[in-house]
Design goal:
Shape: elongated
Strand order of the largest sheet: 3-2-1-4-5-7-6
Strand content: 15-25%
Distance between the termini: 33 Å
Structural class: alpha/beta
Order of helices and strands: HEHEHHEEHEHEEHHHH
Radius of gyration: 19 Å
Helix content: 40-55%
Length: 219
């Protein structure tokens, strides 16, 4: 398994019904079943080809009835409540779209590929409690957001943009991502763009520089 998959698996916990949305190869579901973390697992993917890969990996569990494959959009094909939902490897806006059509899962592990701030904003609007929110690197940078529907939460503007754990206890992966993103934005400023785009870029650059200056000083 890759570091990314192992990181996601480390956030899985015991659940009666587990759903792996956008399951791809099905490695996370395999981990959950092998370690007795769920009584029943659903693997769901909108791509029949991707789902077939997971079905091959999990054939033994499917035959036993402990794993149920569903070719569907998000949670649409799952007809019972899930205690734990994993949605990984897709954009933040897609994750929000999937979650907006169902009651907020009791527990969730989310790994948006981009627009993580939109996921955070949405979760807060639904009254979710975020339990982990950080960045790590495995070839590229990934954000992981975990939590539950048990209680409300509050985030600052900066925490929504960058992730609460990243600001409270910044890892070297997060700091490197900040430096790299900052350098990219500085390079973009040399290109031609309209006034509104330049103003938006400068505003985002300001946020990054404020955070970088705080942590560079502390380090």
């Amino acid at each position: 398994m890759t570091k990314r998959i192992l990181k996601l698996c480390s956030h899985l916990h015991k659940a009666k019904v587990f759903a792996d949305i956008g399951c791809d190869h099905g490695y996370c579901t395999q981990y959950a079943l092998q370690n007795g973390l769920c009584g029943r697992a659903y693997i769901s993917d909108i791509s029949a080809g991707s789902l077939e890969k997971a079905k091959t990996l999990l054939k033994e569990y499917i035959e036993k009835g402990s794993c149920i494959p569903v070719c569907a959009d998000g949670l649409d094909g799952i007809k019972e409540p899930c205690d734990l939902v994993l949605i990984a490897g897709m954009g933040g806006e897609e994750i929000v779209r999937i979650l907006s059509r169902v009651p907020l899962p009791k527990s969730f592990v989310l790994q948006p590929m981009k627009n993580s701030e939109k996921v955070r904003e949405y979760l807060l609007s639904r009254g979710a409690k975020v339990t982990a929110d950080y960045t790590f690197r495995d070839g590229k940078y990934y954000d992981v957001i975990t939590g539950n529907a048990a209680g409300g939460d509050g985030y600052t503007e900066y925490e929504i943009m960058f992730g609460r754990d990243n600001l409270k206890n910044p890892s070297e992966d997060f700091l490197n991502k900040m430096r790299e993103e900052h350098a990219k934005m500085r390079r973009r400023l040399t290109a031609k763009m309209n006034g509104a785009s330049r103003a938006e870029l400068l505003e985002r650059l300001r946020y990054y520089e404020e955070v970088i200056n705080v942590f560079e000083y502390d380090i």
